[in-house]
């Protein structure tokens, strides 16, 4: 939910990481995304927070790409139907 307009945004998060231990962190990543996604939030900050939370858990090297459609872009302002915004956070090497 966008903290600026109190309208939802929805989309997909793509994560990539290098983990020397070989663990699969899928359920952990889903929990982190849901934790930050259920707050009043802005898209850019949420992408960064997910990367910063995931990074120490997988050894530091992580990339998070967030693609989302913003209801505020459809219902007000530029009224662009079908538009989406992508943000990227990269931590580590």
TrEMBL record:
<comment type="pathway">
    <text>Cofactor biosynthesis; 7,8-dihydroneopterin triphosphate biosynthesis; 7,8-dihydroneopterin triphosphate from GTP: step 1/1.</text>
</comment>
<dbReference type="InterPro" id="IPR001474">
    <property type="entry name" value="GTP_CycHdrlase_I"/>
</dbReference>
<dbReference type="GO" id="GO:0005737">
    <property type="term" value="C:cytoplasm"/>
</dbReference>
<dbReference type="GO" id="GO:0005525">
    <property type="term" value="F:GTP binding"/>
</dbReference>
<dbReference type="Pfam" id="PF01227">
    <property type="entry name" value="GTP_cyclohydroI"/>
</dbReference>
<keyword id="KW-0378">Hydrolase</keyword>
<protein>
    <recommendedName>
        <fullName>GTP cyclohydrolase 1</fullName>
        <ecNumber>3.5.4.16</ecNumber>
    </recommendedName>
</protein>
<feature type="domain" description="GTP cyclohydrolase I">
    <location>
        <begin position="1"/>
        <end position="93"/>
    </location>
</feature>
<comment type="similarity">
    <text>Belongs to the GTP cyclohydrolase I family.</text>
</comment>
<dbReference type="InterPro" id="IPR043133">
    <property type="entry name" value="GTP-CH-I_C/QueF"/>
</dbReference>
<dbReference type="GO" id="GO:0003934">
    <property type="term" value="F:GTP cyclohydrolase I activity"/>
</dbReference>
<dbReference type="InterPro" id="IPR020602">
    <property type="entry name" value="GTP_CycHdrlase_I_dom"/>
</dbReference>
<dbReference type="GO" id="GO:0008270">
    <property type="term" value="F:zinc ion binding"/>
</dbReference>
<dbReference type="GO" id="GO:0046654">
    <property type="term" value="P:tetrahydrofolate biosynthetic process"/>
</dbReference>
<dbReference type="GO" id="GO:0006729">
    <property type="term" value="P:tetrahydrobiopterin biosynthetic process"/>
</dbReference>
């Amino acid at each position: 939910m966008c903290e600026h307009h109190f309208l939802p945004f929805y989309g997909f998060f793509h994560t990539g990481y290098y983990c020397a231990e070989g663990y699969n962190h899928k359920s952990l990543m889903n929990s982190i995304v849901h934790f930050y996604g259920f707050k009043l939030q802005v898209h850019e900050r949420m992408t960064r927070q997910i990367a910063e939370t995931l990074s120490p858990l997988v050894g530091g090297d992580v990339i998070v790409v967030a693609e989302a459609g913003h209801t505020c872009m459809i219902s007000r302002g530029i009224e662009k139907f079908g538009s989406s915004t992508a943000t990227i956070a990269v931590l580590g090497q």
